Amino acid sequence: FGPELSFGRAMADNTAGRQIAIIKVSRGGTSLFADWDPSDTVNDPKGYMYQGFETAVPAAILALQNMGHSVE
Predict the structure, then answer these.
(1) Nearby residues of 56 by Cβ (< 8 Å), 6 or more positions away
(2) Is residue 30 within 8 Å of 36, Cβ to Cβ?
(3) In terms of Cα–Cα distance, which of 35, 60, 34, 38 is closest to 49?
(4) What is the pLDDT at residue 66?
(5) pLDDT tens digits, the chain, 72 residues: what are they?
(6) Contact at 8 Å (CB) between 39 and 11?
(7) Torsion, CA 22, CA 23, CA 29, CA 30, rounded to 10
(8) DSSP letters spanning 28-40
(9) Which of 30, 29, 24 is nearest to 1 (CA)?
(10) 21-60 in b/e burial notation, b at 16+ Cβ within 10 A?
């Protein structure tokens, strides 16, 4: 559990009845500098958590669509 709980509640309270999905990708003890690095240059590959994020988000969106939800 983290800040997504209060953020999600605030979004739900202020989106005029629209449904909101939060896709959480996390792992304790990771570094934003290395593990979540989005760069992809020759000597600076993407961090492993960012690579997981790039996989998890499209998979979650597809799962929502397969359940009949429209996703924006």
Answers:
(1) 23, 25
(2) yes
(3) 35
(4) 97
(5) 688 889 988 988 898 878 888 998 988 889 888 889 898 777 778 888 999 999 999 999 999 999 999 998
(6) no
(7) -130
(8) TT--TTTTT----
(9) 24
(10) eeeeeeeeeeeeeebbbeeeeeeeebbebbbbbeeeeeeb
pTM of the model: 0.75
Q: CB–CB of 62/50 below 8 Å?
A: no
State the DSSP code for 68: T
Number of residues assigned to the chain: 72
User: Residue written as tokens 């570094």?
Assistant: 31
